[in-house]
Design a protein that fits this description.
By secondary structure, this protein is mainly beta. The protein contains one helix and eight strands.
Length: 135
């Protein structure tokens, strides 16, 4: 019984440590929203894209309708109106080590994110809307 109580106390302590208050409004899990619609679901018919952020790191994963998986992650910086990713690993190796800066705006549970960057000699335009995944 004492061991069970100890395990419960440790589990509660670890859980509370993970819930530390942060002033960064991007911390959490996000699902990409297609143009003008609801978040894409994982129904097998559509691409599913998830992005997870803590105070200073991001990771994302994409699963295409064909079942291919792409992803990346690394450090990021956020200041009101600006979001910058510094990929440390990525499906497109040319992005590793770059600083990808985007304009961003938060409106409730929506995160608007736009900008452009170069990859493998091509200019890539990004205009994304992410919706917070609620627990």
């Amino acid at each position: 019984m004492k061991i069970l109580k100890l395990v419960c106390v440790l589990a509660a302590t670890i859980s509370l440590m993970g819930c530390a208050h942060t002033s960064n409004p991007l911390v959490g899990s996000w699902r990409l929203v297609p143009s003008g619609g609801e978040p894409i679901t994982e129904d097998g018919d559509a691409e599913a894209t998830i992005k997870i952020l803590n105070d200073n790191h991001f990771a994302f994963g994409i699963m295409t309708p064909e079942g291919e998986v792409f992803g990346g992650g690394g450090r990021y910086e956020y200041a009101e109106g600006t979001y910058t990713e510094m990929p440390e690993y990525h499906s497109l190796p040319s992005l590793i080590g770059q600083r990808l800066t985007f304009r961003c705006e938060l409106k409730g549970d929506l995160w608007y994110h736009s900008g452009s960057f170069d990859s493998e000699g091509r200019k890539i335009e990004v205009r994304e809307v992410w919706k917070r995944i609620k627990e």
